[in-house]
Design brief:
With 274 residues, the chain is an alpha/beta fold. It has a single domain, classed as Rossmann fold, CATH 3.40.50. The chain has nine helices and seven strands. Strand 1, helix 1 and strand 2 form a beta-alpha-beta unit. Helix 1 crosses helix 6, helix 2 crosses helix 3 and helix 3 packs parallel to helix 4. The chain is globular and about 50 Å long. The structure holds 1,4-dihydronicotinamide adenine dinucleotide and D-galactaro-1,5-lactone. The site of 1,4-dihydronicotinamide adenine dinucleotide has 23 residues, from helix 1, helix 3 and strand 5.
């Protein structure tokens, strides 16, 4: 596949979309922007819901690849998840198929496997302790369940229609980690851009599932499928550990909100909208 130049970024008004709008052009991409919410200072952005197939066709037409971030990013009533994350990702892939787009990068989430027990003991965790990418799905919310659907839809569109996807089970991509859990799952914005670039340019990905995080000392999962795409993370959350641990204490194995990959999404999921 020739290296993509023009990339549709859905969810461009959101937190991650805003970070990637700032970082991805340095890799040579021209971004086309799509979101249900308007984006200040971006008059060419397409403002539409994912259910608007005409607007989606306009957005997808002529791009080389799609980074699909649009959707509900926290827990919500099933009907809302159904609309934005399940029907929404279906509309996206149908349009991609119709328009002959070769590659999608799908923003999956660690919450697709959120009920998986986290590695115990002292980090750094060895290869045998890190959670593999083919661990059984254990969604922690309807939100996580919708990401399982998105990954399976991506697999179907590869097997049946030859649309390639890298599904990125993102940990927490924010400027800085804000909890002790995030020390394990944090992906710096710079590493996020490096991973999306690798996912856009690697050859022959078929449907590949990767975890999305930095090279954290306290990492919980196996980054080898991401590294196989050419991803070379440069950041480590450990610089933030002294302050966060002093404020919040270390994770307690007996605390159900600390015991599994999904953290507090398992016990008391944050709700959309914030
Ligand atoms: P966000 O909530 O800040 O942004 C999501 C954007 O999607 C919003 O601008 C919203 O208007 C748009 N959107 C929602 N439903 C839509 C619809 N039906 N039609 C069109 N646009 C719609 O979320 P954030 O943090 O930027 O995350 C982006 C993506 O990455 C989401 O899919 C989220 O599930 C995923 N993700 C993000 C993580 C993170 O650390 N930021 C971690 C794991 C996954
Ligand atoms: C997610 O999937 C959410 O979209 C993001 O807002 C964070 O809460 C992240 O997971 C996390 O697990 O920290």
């Amino acid at each position: 596949m020739p290296a993509p130049r023009t990339v549709l970024l859905t969810g461009a008004a959101g937190g991650l979309g805003t970070l990637m709008r700032g970082l991805l052009p340095a890799y040579g991409y021209t971004l086309r922007l799509f979101d249900a919410a308007p984006i200040e200072g971006e008059p060419d952005a397409i403002t539409a819901d994912l259910s608007d197939r005409r607007a989606l066709r306009e957005a997808v037409s002529g791009v080389d690849a799609v980074i699909h971030l649009a959707g509900i990013s926290l827990e919500a009533p099933f009907e809302k998840i159904l609309h934005s994350n399940i029907e929404g990702v279906y509309h996206l892939y149908e349009t991609v198929r119709e328009e002959g787009i070769a590659r999608v990068v799908f923003a999956s989430s660690n919450h697709a496997v959120g009920f998986t027990p986290r590695p115990r003991g002292e980090p750094p965790h060895g290869a045998g302790e890190l959670i593999p990418v083919d661990t059984p799905r254990r969604p922690d919310t309807y939100y996580g369940l919708s990401k399982c659907f998105g990954e399976d839809l991506a697999q179907l569109y590869w097997d049946r229609h030859g649309v390639e996807t890298v599904s990125v089970r993102i940990g927490s991509c924010f400027m800085e980690p804000s909890t002790v859990r995030m020390l394990s799952v944090w992906m710096s914005p710079g590493d996020g851009a490096r991973l999306f670039h690798a996912a856009l340019t690697a050859e022959g990905v078929g449907h590949t599932v990767v975890y999305g995080s930095s090279a954290n000392t306290r990492l919980w999962w196996d980054l080898s499928s991401a590294r196989a795409l050419g991803y070379d993370p440069r950041d480590d959350s450990e610089q933030f550990a002294p302050k966060l641990v002093a404020e919040q204490g270390e994770l307690e194995p007996g605390n159900p909100a600390h015991a599994r990959l999904g953290g507090h999404f398992v016990t008391d999921p944050p709700r959309w909208p914030h």
